[in-house]
Design goal:
Subunit structure (chain A): Heterodimer of an alpha and a beta subunit.
Keywords (chain A): Electron transport, Transport
Strand content of chain B: 25-35%
Shape of chain A: globular
Pfam family, one (chain A): ETF
Oligomer: heterodimer
Cofactor (chain A): AMP
Radius of gyration of chain B: 21 Å
Structural class of chain A: alpha/beta
Distance between the termini of chain A: 56 Å
Largest interface: A-B, 78 and 94 residues
Function (chain A): The electron transfer flavoprotein serves as a specific electron acceptor for other dehydrogenases. It transfers the electrons to the main respiratory chain via ETF-ubiquinone oxidoreductase (ETF dehydrogenase).
């Protein structure tokens, strides 16, 4: 089975966000694999181990993205593809990314594509479904279970807390939700092996795309931090009095009860 | 005059509140726009369409078909595209719900359009949306294609219902077929109690709740408040509750009017999911807990002492 994983690098979840020059300051920040994409990588490896085939991890990024791709290879993916757009695209959006990915995939033999259901930075959740539509492939979002039997695929997906059981078939794109699996940490032998695994680097030219073909359809006009919160009021006295005061404050001051 | 489609969303035969929020959002984007309510469902579409009109839509378009009983990407795409082709709108507003998140990127792709997802505010022609799980915000515009947005539930208030309003309801016939995904079953886990994403009040528990049984007092308080119950990742990882309740960077991002954090230390990943709530109450026995840094009101104490007393106090209102 030919399995592809769409990966994005994101800020480490512990990072504080700072803004400089109207954009998020990336200098010095730690980057990680988007946590939802880790579920996709883990599931791809498990499905390959069960059904055979190869796992290829694809990312659209810059030369620093190699680090996250090597981590995916160390987890157990077979090969990686870095589509480096650093020199060609200044302000991409989800249209940009999905068009690049689907152009890369359109002449490949693809059985299954896995992606995170959302990236924790831009959090639009658009790229997976856009890629599937561009490849005219069915897709199922926010999956928490998948089993494949021949062409038939049975999936459990999370729908705002409810579980939906879905039947569909390959080829297919799915986006992964928390609960699907527990992503492994790369082992030391895995890390050693990963250094020798193939990592292909492409640019837009190699895909016969130019900048205009992938020009963003949305524009970011401002980036700002939420207003600083004033220090809160810690209540004092006996529990009974604190509780009474809290309810009274919520009614009269905050007006939320 | 511009035309905006405001997509309603039916669940169990009734429209979700965010259906009306899409109408209000369309009016905020362009106050002179003609807002067309859209209802896609397997039955009862005309009465749902009239609800959309009473909440401010100028008229409505419906597609009624057995294949629209449950949301599937293929069936809803066919129905939505038929409506879009008929109306040729300037803009589209949908809820950033499970269905909206699944459907909107595909429609945007078919329409060769930009899409601004998960907006919380309309500021002229610009849309405000949280990024980095609410640690920052950005303003976006669509520069190519339709003015196409999805709105985060519970952020843009609906217009007042006006039962005297009336308008045209146009039913479109669509032959919905060739579905590549089939829903075999739906297991309702979240239907008990209030939906987290739409809740005005949330009572959330963390590791300090200590056990599954420890959540009982939180549910009792939530019942009295008409609130939803949520949890931190710590509580979910420890097995005290289902992951469907998780609030945070992974999990749900919520913005209720009142968020009561119980036994939650306030890790940055949890704050990312709730720090934009209007009013935050923290109840924790550790006075140094980070949650107090974002709380408007705090009680330092044992939650098993505080919560039952709080429930009694609310009951007495």
């Amino acid at each position: 089975m030919n399995i592809y994983v769409l990966m994005k690098k994101t800020f480490d979840t512990e990072e504080k966000i700072q803004i400089s020059g109207g954009a998020i300051e990336e200098e010095g920040a730690e980057f990680i694999i988007n946590p939802y994409d880790e579920y996709a990588i883990e599931e791809a490896i498990n499905l390959r181990d069960e059904h055979g085939g190869e796992v290829t991890v694809v990312t659209v990024g810059d030369e620093d993205s190699e680090q996250q791709l090597r981590t995916a290879l160390a987890m157990g993916a077979d090969q990686a593809v870095l589509i480096n757009i650093e020199d060609d695209v200044e302000d991409g959006d989800q249209y940009t990314t999905s068009t690049i990915i689907s152009t890369y995939l359109k002449d490949k033999e693809v059985d299954l594509i896995l992606a995170g259901n959302v990236a924790i930075d831009q959090a639009s959740g658009q790229v997976g479904p856009r890629v599937a539509d561009q490849l005219d492939m069915p897709y199922v979002t926010t999956i928490t279970e998948i089993s494949i039997d021949g062409e038939e695929v049975n999936i459990v997906r999370d729908v705002e807390g409810d579980e939906e059981k879905v039947q569909t078939s390959l080829p297919l794109l799915v986006t992964c939700q928390q609960g699907l699996n527990e992503p492994r940490y790369p082992s030391l032998p895995g890390i050693m092996k990963a250094k020798k695994k193939p990592l292909e680097e492409l640019e837009l030219d190699d895909l016969d795309l130019d900048e205009d073909d992938v020009e963003a359809k949305t524009e970011t006009t401002d980036v700002f931090l939420p207003p600083e919160k004033e220090a809160g009021k810690v209540l004092e006295g006996e529990t009974d009095d604190q509780v009474k005061e809290l309810v009274s404050l919520l009614r009269s001051e905050a007006k939320v009860l | 005059m511009t035309t905006f489609l405001a997509f309603g969303e039916a669940r169990d035969g009734e429209l979700r509140i965010l259906s009306y929020e899409t109408i209000a959002a369309a009016k905020q984007i362009d106050e002179n726009a003609e807002v067309v309510g859209v209802v896609l469902a397997d039955q009862n579409t005309e009465s749902l369409a009239n609800e959309m009109i009473q909440y401010g839509a100028d008229r409505a378009v419906v597609v009624e078909h057995d294949n629209l009983k449950e949301y599937t990407s293929d069936a809803y795409t066919q129905a939505a595209m038929a409506v879009i082709e008929e109306e040729d709108p300037d803009g589209i507003v949908m809820g950033h719900t499970s269905a909206g998140k699944d459907l909107s990127p595909r429609l945007a792709n078919k329409l060769d359009s930009g899409l601004v997802s998960d907006i919380t505010n309309v500021d002229g022609g610009e849309f405000v949306r949280p990024i980095y799980s609410g640690k920052a915000f950005e303003k976006k515009t669509v520069k190519d294609g339709l003015t196409f947005v999805t709105i985060r539930p519970n952020n843009i208030p609906p217009l007042e219902k006006d039962e005297s309003r009336s308008g045209d309801v146009n039913a479109i016939e669509v032959d919905i077929k060739d579905l590549r995904t089939i829903i075999k079953d739906v297991v309702r886990k979240a239907s008990e109690g209030v939906d987290l994403s739409e809740a005005n009040i949330i009572v959330a528990g963390g590791r300090g709740v200590k056990s599954e049984e420890g959540f009982e007092p939180l549910y009792e308080l939530a019942d009295e408040l008409g609130a939803a119950v949520g949890a931190s990742r710590g509580a979910c990882d420890a097995g005290y509750c289902d992951y469907s309740l998780q609030i945070g960077q992974t999990g749900k991002v919520v913005t209720p009017d009142l968020y009561i954090a119980v036994g939650i230390s306030g890790a940055i990943q949890h704050l990312a999911g709730m720090s934009n709530s209007k009013v935050i109450v923290a109840i924790n026995k550790d006075p140094e807990a980070n949650i107090f840094n974002v709380a408007d009101y705090g009680i330092v104490g044992d939650l098993f002492d505080v919560i039952p007393k709080l429930t009694e106090e609310v009951k007495a209102l």
